[in-house]
Amino acid sequence: MPTPSQCTTMPELRAEIDRIDRALIALLGERVACIDRAAEIKAEQGLPARIAARVDEVLAHVRDQARMAGVDPELTEQLWTLLIEWSIAREEARLGTGGKEQME
To answer: What CATH number should be reported for the domain holding residue 18?
Structure first.
């Protein structure tokens, strides 16, 4: 796996970006499986899909991690906000408390 600076042509760099995209999608799939399990546990424990304190905690955590990795914290927060809202809607659909069915 070459670093970006080791890529000397656009095809090399594009191949590396494609590899990273595949890895990100695989990780996203793992996260979705965790969201589905969270919905099951929340149903068993009578918890709502949205737990505001947890949302705040996740966003603060990813902002901190972004800063440490040299990634724009604003971009990271925007991406995670979208991911969190999608996840909450998926949980709500499974809990039967609203939200759109998110099966794909």
So the answer is: 1.20.59.10
